[in-house]
Structures are given as structure tokens and as C-alpha cells.
Design brief:
Elements (H helix, E strand, L loop, with lengths): L7 H7 L19 H8 L8 H12 L5 E2 L10 E3 L4 E6 L19 H24 L3 E6 H6 L3 H12 L5 E4 L3
Parallel strand pairs: 3-4, 4-5
Antiparallel strand pairs: 1-2, 2-3
Helix pairs in contact: 3-6
Bound molecules: zinc ion (ZN).
Length: about 180
Amino acid sequence: MAGTGDSDDTWSRLLPDAGLHVNFNPYMSDIVSPAKRSAMMSGIRAKDTKPELRVRKALFAAGFRYRLHIKKMPGCPDIVLSKYRAAIFVHGCFWHQHAGCKLSKIPASRVEFWKAKLEGNSARDSRAVRDILSLGWRVLIVWECHLRAQRDMSTLQKELSEWINGGPEFSQLEST
Ligand SMILES: [Zn+2]
């Protein structure tokens, strides 16, 4: 593949736009139609989001091979490395309510609606992590804020490789 530099520009060129954006602005929800909003909401578990593609790209370039969205595993992890008994989730900070992260702030309007929705997501996430760990696998969560802050592909590769090759049973890459 031509042009595998580290710049964000390169990333943008290499990665197809996934259509459903994780940086969809929840503050806009009150001015869109219910149908449109429903379509946006269904993007919570959208496959192939841009941050996820970025992680996959880094792993692939580092020589790792993986499977995607294994429905049989708890929580249907985004990336699964069976050889390492390792599952990776790439989480949007808002939708998955990254604790203490500025991207996770709940909108001031329709607070109850958002709280119920997002607390449901968080509960599901915690359950998935617990269940995967109980199977004797390891879990890494890569947060959207980290991917935004960590623009250097080789550093991201190094972080991922280190965890895969013997990191703790549960770890997170985050930049809050
Ligand atoms: Zn975050």
C-alpha cells in the first residue's frame, strides 16, 4: 500500500468513511425528526466506525491477525485475537460513558432519556467484560479520546502490541 506515513492526513486517506459517525453530536438530537434520531441511535453498535478501523489498521500493520465482531462472545467484541485469548473493544466515549472523560458529558436537555439510555450501555459493557474475563480471556478497551489524542500510528501499534503480548487481564487505553 502506498503512503503509509503517520500523519492524520494519511489516516484519513487510507480509511474509508464509515457513514455512521461516532462523533455524532447528541446536543443536536432535539432538532432532528424522531425517525432520524432513531437511525442515529441505532448507530450505537455501528460496525466499522472510524476509530475501530484505525485500531484494526494499526494491528494489521504490526503483524497481528484477528477476527471481527464475534457474536458468540459476550458483548460481541470488536476485535478478537484468539491466539492470544484477547478481546478488544473500541468505545466511543459518549455512547459508552467513559468515566471522567470530557467527551462523555450528558446533554443538558432530556437528561433522563440520555441517562437511562447510556446507563444501559454501561451496564452491558461491564457485564461483557466480566463475562469475557471469566472465560479466561483478556480484555482491552481502547477509548475514542485516546485515538483522538494519540495520532502517531507507531506508538499506537506499540501500545497494542505490548498489551497483546502479555499485558494485564484487563486494561484500557484512554486519554481523559
Ligand atoms: Zn474518553
